[in-house]
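Structure representation:
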Amino acid sequence: KQDPGRGLAGDEIEIEIAYSRDHLSGGGQRQVTSHELTRPKWREFSGRISRVGSAIDSWLPGEPIAAAALCHLASHVVVRETDLRAIKLSATPSIGSSSLAITAASVRAALQEMARAKQRETVLVISEAQDEVARMFAVTALDLGLDFLPARTGENASSGTFDGSPMDLRSDDFERRVLAANHGRPLDIVVFCETVNPALHNRIPLA
């Protein structure tokens, strides 16, 4: 747990975590390494607002929340409001509804980014094969006049020249192939529809 006596900056929010994506998908207890405990990573969770900074007027202590943020593994996390991707909930979610609430927060954040996109910008969607959510992102991207590129991290990913089939994020040649498919330009938007090893993030050329 982070130091409860630590004062909050004006734009910071403290969240008490009830359920996290790790809790929901782990299928039981898992040994956590010291590296995982001390290294910030992108986490998805639900819980309630415990404290807010003096400049925060969109959230109140006690409000239920489902969110995604770059933070440490802790019972309470502190994040800047601008770094938080979240939705308000009508009630504190149970373990059965938390997964849906967390997914809704992530989908909302991705759609907000896509809504700010300009025509001819490129969206990379990373997903498992036959992912219905990824298909909806693809349709939305095309409707907005965006260029769409699919990618995978497992089977059914292409390791050759880009031909419309999903590219393999694990390939050492991934960055070159993405740039070639995008006419030498880095990507404008990346949507993650599946969990991706953080070590692979640096292979994605972002504008």
Q: What stands out?
A: Residues 33 and 39 are 10 Å apart (CA to CA).
